[in-house]
Design goal:
The complex is a heterodimer. By secondary structure, chain A is of the alpha+beta class. Helices cover 26% and strands 25% of the residues of chain A. Chain A is built from 18 helices and 30 strands. In chain A, helix 12 runs parallel beside helix 13 and helix 16 crosses helix 17. Chain A is globular and about 80 Å long. The mean pLDDT of chain A is 96. Chain B has a domain of 101 residues: Enolase-like, domain 1. Chain B has a 5-stranded antiparallel β-sheet, with no helix packed on it. In chain B, a hairpin with a 6-residue loop joins strand 4 and strand 5. The longest helix of chain B is centred in the C-terminal third of the chain and has 18 residues. The N and C termini of chain B lie far apart (48 Å). The relative contact order of chain B is 0.13. The mean pLDDT of chain B is 96. Classes of the chains: A alpha+beta, B alpha+beta. The interface between A and B is medium-sized, with 33 and 33 residues. Bound molecules: flavin-adenine dinucleotide and iron/sulfur cluster (SF4). Iron/sulfur cluster (SF4) binds next to helix 8 of chain B.
């Protein structure tokens, strides 16, 4: 092993820091620029739309509205994408109906971006407004379990066990809406070729999704359109589904027979999906000695009026601790808004937030240390599915976290500044370790450089780097000899990059294709060297670009001179490991935090965050740590900063900018420490690796909430927790 | 944004009497250009004053004279500001980000506009942006809004940090009006919304701020600028306090308290301050001053918390000023 497990620097790092990495909006063909005009009401219809002044404005090339949507986009057209939830996807310009505030109602295409933007303001729109109720709370009576998928089965007798418990709590927790806001705004650049074919550069977490959408809507097949996405400047789930700029840029390119680019503004980044607002009701009971007896978790979440977006939220409560009597309920309520969208650790973040706060509250009621309480209720098999885990080293995470943080003696650590209250809190986190089918191809050229292709994405996670590491090791060559290519519908199929399964799925496929190559090269070598006909594959080794047998070395390039061209190209499709069926795969972590709260002013600070994770084999500790740090920073933001402020009178997001939608800034982040414990896993996938893109954000908000309680004696039970919440609690 | 004419003014333009009446003044552009992109401001013509000569900080025995075009960063880090007017240094550095402070000018900082969510969103009713349309904030999100000096037509705040320190220092603003320099005491620069919330300040069209005159007294011994915000950097103040003290044998010889984030202008009441001259510099007296200073404060729902918060902040700021760490 040369490379796996090394802190390999990003292979695409130099491109990124020198501006050579081309994101969707960096394509520099001669484009027309598209700008979308959005509705200013949330519910009703457009009674008139006058585009004449805009059409006459300098530089304007075309304007599209529901009035002139090509007929062919209206009949038997499939607007779904691979991740569409049940319901009817939004269809831009389909008719005069307004389904949410900020809905695209016109597209202006002009020579420059500024011309398009200003011309859009010259469009006069008249509406007929309908009354609506804008908030989740006001719509609760429409909440229904029928719209939501069924959670994991209930077990035991919750009611009885709850009644018989020595300590019980009933609590409500609320989370506000969060918006993704990756650094790179959504963008699509469409190149219109003279033969009518298109090359579409899209911001997406899987090019196949864009292709599916373009096929369904515009009837474009893989023969007429190629979708590419070399670099993605963060997505966090916002690129799991094609967003409306793909429709817009493609529509305009096809209608105007010209290259078209559309880049969303930051404000427009608040005009599509988000992590939904949810309300959790938790009922927990335990015995005198702190053994969990009964657990009920009910969540109501918002969705749009046209799609039933759902997440796996309450199931986490049936999974994390040993409990015989469990009741899980999940309901959805439509609000006048766009459909929510998966966001980093969708569902897990929300479910575990409520569970980990409630566990802390129950431990407190029972007078048991929160860490001790969690240990007492540890479980080593998946009770929802009645299956063993592929591996679970959470106990080791608890032990290590306890040690590095200094949990036992934490009260001695408190600083005695007059106005500051110090508190300590913890939580458990977990995320799925899934593997999806993935295909890859490999070829070697005369210089011995390998090109490996897969339609997967690198959304900042380090796919380029990690795949290169795996291939270099498996092939026995240096990492410079690997060229990993991704983000192209011309490449072999990949699952969408999400769910933290890319290393597991694509990584395993890469490992296998490299293995196949070694067999291939051994065959060629034997075929051309009669002396070695009988050599067993196991007696051969592969190092430094050479096949070695009994201290004789033969370079790959030399051997391959005798191979046919076909022999040099290998394809492979990897299916999920057997263990994915027989076992449940999850990564786990323990997070501990220190907070200070200003007694008089309510200001909450987080001087210290520690996360210890168990995530199988860590292929690259550097990119893995990056992922954890990023998700912990975001967890802090979710706990203390981020809130999509929807004025429910208008159904409109009032803080659609970075000055007022507060993501955490550098100054908010103090000491963060991350570690991995050793976790051997031979079942989860051939690499034994679990993804860590999402794990670090799960549990963090609960840990902060628990620490605030420890400091102040106040349970805030809502996110984000702001200084006014402290003052008013 | 709407197409506009752009002119870069020279000193000769000014002396030849070129009038600024029909143009909007562009300094650093960090606020104005933003508002133009949002369509909140749609000037037909911009007069860029970047090449005018108000780019110096000059020392005299009357006090420091700050050019209107000196950047916020250069002002904060100027040696005399740091040593003589540390409250100003601290206030400026508590604002925005270093990138913005490198670009933003002193004149622009004074006349930056409110951050009211509804003011920024041209689809919303807002009396300040479009007189007569109503105020969406009164019954909407008003967590960042005013609790003092509000009117039925507007509850916006002035967002500047620098201005709060300037108010405490009782600076003066030098304005070129029709070729003549007039001097405006700081507390008369900004105004309360009343029934004309579209007017942020008392300047007239065509007025050009040329300098800010700091008084000789800088309160370098006992001062504090306390800013309370939703994150540790890069956020406007929910509440801020500029506190300056002179103490003699435990007694208050002079006291200045200006509040940010609570009104349409930095909030400061000279009568209240005077009441405490000669009294003991104690927490009890600071509390009583706080009570008097915010008398009549009124919340609008989500900003109710500011009333108790600002009291706590005043006392904390005065105590910090009294006992510098
Ligand atoms: C994201 C963000 C965060 C910020 N955070 C803070 C903060 O925390 N605290 C804070 O105090 N500020 C903050 N600011 C505001 C910043 O301080 C102002 O934008 C800046 O001071 C304006 O200065 P400027 O030179 O860029 O003004 P411009 O944008 O050029 O002008 C602003 C206004 O002043 C007028 N004007 C400018 N100069 C003169 C003059 N000499 N005479 C007459 N009129 C003039 C212009 O016509 C315009 O109306 C923030 C800004 C942003 C964008
Ligand atoms: S508070 Fe003032 S600025 Fe805000 S909406 Fe009301 S009138 Fe407009």
């Amino acid at each position: 092993m040369l490379n796996i497990g090394n802190k390999q620097k990003r292979v695409d790092g130099p491109q990124k820091v020198t501006g050579k990495a081309t994101y969707a909006a960096d394509i520099t063909s001669q484009f027309y620029h598209a700008y979308v005009l959005q509705s200013t009401i949330a519910c009703g219809s457009i009674t008139a739309i006058d585009t004449s002044a805009a059409e006459a404005f300098e530089g304007v090339k075309g304007i599209f509205t529901h009035k002139n949507l090509p007929e062919r986009l209206k009949n038997k057209v499939d607007y779904t994408d691979p991740l569409s939830p049940p319901g009817k996807p939004f269809r831009p310009f389909y008719n005069d109906k307004i389904l949410y505030n900020g809905q695209p109602i016109a597209l202006v295409v002009a020579q420059t971006f500024e011309q398009a933007r200003y011309a859009s303001k010259l469009i006069k729109v008249t509406y007929e407004e309908k009354k609506f109720k804008g908030s989740l709370s006001e719509n609760l009576k429409n909440a229904s379990a029928d719209r939501a998928p069924e959670p994991a089965s209930n077990r035991g007798d919750f009611k009885k066990a709850f009644k018989n418990s020595d300590y019980t709590i009933i609590r409500e927790y609320r989370q506000s809406r969060n918006y993704h806001n990756p650094m790179e705004p959504h963008a699509t650049s469409v190149e219109y070729k003279s033969d009518g074919s298109l090359v579409v550069y899209d911001k997406i977490q899987g090019v196949a999704s864009s292709l599916k959408y373009l096929n369904g809507v515009f009837g474009l097949g893989a023969d007429t359109v190629q979708v590419k996405s070399d670099f993605v400047g963060g997505a966090f789930g916002s690129g799991l589904r094609p967003q409306y700029q793909l429709f817009m840029a493609t529509l305009a390119a096809l209608e105007l027979n010209h290259n078209v680019q559309m880049v969303m503004t930051r404000a427009q980044m608040f005009s599509f999906g988000y992590r939904p607002e949810v309300i959790h009701t938790m009922k927990l009971g335990c015995s005198n000695d702190g053994i969990l007896q009964a657990l009920s978790h009910k969540t109501v979440g918002e969705t749009s009026t046209f799609e039933d977006f759902n997440e796996t939220i309450v199931d986490w409560s049936g999974l994390l601790y040993k409990c015989e009597n469990v009741n899980l309920e999940y309901e959805l309520t439509p609000v006048q808004s766009y459909t929510p969208l998966d966001m980093r650790a969708p569902g897990g973040v929300s479910g575990v937030y409520a569970l980990e706060c409630a566990i802390d509250e129950l431990a407190h009621e029972a007078g048991i240390d929160p860490l001790e309480f969690r240990r007492k209720n540890y479980v080593d098999y998946d009770q929802n599915e009645d299956k063993p885990f592929t591996s679970k080293e959470l106990m080791a995470c608890y032990a290590r976290c306890e040690e590095v943080f200094g949990w036992k003696n934490r009260k001695d650590l408190s600083k005695t500044e007059p106005h500051l209250l110090t508190g300590y809190g913890m939580a458990t986190g977990s995320w799925e370790a899934l593997q999806q089918p993935a295909s890859v191809s490999l070829s070697m050229n005369e210089e011995g450089t390998f090109t490996i292709k897969c339609a997967t994405a690198d959304i900042g996670t380090g796919t380029y780097t990690v795949m290169s590491q795996i291939a270099a090791d498996k092939l026995g060559v240096s990492i410079e000899k690997i060229k990993f290519m991704l983000g192209d519908t011309a490449f072999p199929d990949s699952p969408i990059e999400g769910g933290s399964w890319t290393v597991s799925s694509v990584g395993s496929a890469v490992a296998s294709v490299c293995e196949k190559f070694k067999y291939r090269i051994a065959d060629v070598w034997k075929r051309n060297n009669p002396d070695y006909q009988a050599v067993a594959f196991g007696d051969i080794s592969f190092q430094k670009g050479k096949l070695e047998y009994r201290s004789k070395a033969f370079s790959f390039t030399e051997i391959m001179q005798q191979a046919s061209k076909e022999e040099l190209s290998i394809a492979h499709s990897e299916s999920p490991a057997e263990g994915q069926n027989t076992h449940s795969g999850y990564a786990h972590c323990c997070v501990m935090v220190e907070v200070t709260v200003d007694k008089d002013l309510g200001i909450i600070k987080v001087p210290r965050l520690v996360n210890v994770s168990a995530a199988g084999k860590i292929i690259n500790p550097k990119t893995a740590e990056n992922q954890l740090l990023g998700s912990m920073v975001w967890g802090l933001g979710m706990a203390l900063r981020e809130e999509g402020m929807v004025d429910t009178r208008y159904g409109r997001v009032m803080n659609a900018n970075f000055a007022e939608y507060h993501i955490a800034v550098n100054a908010d982040i103090h000491d963060i420490h991350t570690e991995f414990v050793e976790e051997k896993d031979d079942k989860v996938n051939p690499l034994g690796a679990k993804g860590v893109g999402e794990l670090g954000i799960v549990g963090l908000a609960a840990a902060i909430s628990n620490a605030i309680f420890d400091a102040t004696g106040k349970r805030l039970r809502k996110l984000p927790m702001l200084l006014d919440d402290v003052l008013e609690a | 944004m709407k197409p506009f004419q752009y002119t870069r003014l020279s000193t000769e333009d000014l002396s030849s009497g070129t009038t600024l009446r029909d143009s909007t003044i562009l300094a650093g552009g960090t606020n104005l250009v933003d508002l133009m992109k949002y369509g909140v401001e749609e000037p037909d013509s911009l007069a860029d004053i970047g090449k005018l000569p108000y780019t110096q900080i000059e020392e005299s025995d009357k006090g420091l004279l700050l050019g209107a075009l000196v950047t916020n960063a250069d002002t904060a880090y100027h040696a005399a500001v740091k040593s003589t007017y540390p409250v100003l240094n601290k206030a400026i550095l508590a604002a925005a980000s270093s990138q913005l402070r490198n670009r933003a000018t002193n004149g622009g900082n004074l006349l930056q506009r409110t951050r009211c969510y509804y003011f920024y969103d041209t689809t919303m009713p807002c009396n300040k942006r479009e007189p007569g349309t109503g105020c969406a904030a009164i019954k909407g999100f008003n967590r960042i809004h005013a609790i003092l000096g509000t009117s039925a037509s507007c509850i916006a705040t002035h967002p500047s940090d620098m201005c709060v320190a300037l108010a405490a220092l009782e600076a003066k603003v030098l304005v070129l009006r029709k070729g003549e320099t007039i001097v405006i005491p700081f507390d008369q620069l900004h105004r309360l919304p009343g029934d004309q919330p579209e007017k942020d300040h008392n300047l007239e069209p065509g007025d050009l701020i040329t300098h800010i005159q700091l008084p000789a007294e800088g309160f370098s011994e006992h001062f504090e600028y306390l800013k309370i915000r939703d994150r540790e950097s890069y956020a406007f103040a929910l509440v801020s306090v500029a506190a300056c003290l002179k103490v003699s044998e435990g007694k208050i010889a002079d006291i200045r308290v200006a509040l940010g984030g609570v009104a349409h202008k930095p909030w400061k009441l000279k009568e209240v301050e005077k009441d405490f001259f000669g009294k003991e510099a104690s927490t009890e007296n600071f509390q009583s001053l706080a009570e008097q200073l915010i008398q009549g404060a009124q919340g609008f729902g989500t900003n109710d918390f500011k009333i108790s918060l600002v009291k706590g902040a005043i006392v904390r700021a005065l105590n910090n000023a009294l006992n510098p760490s």
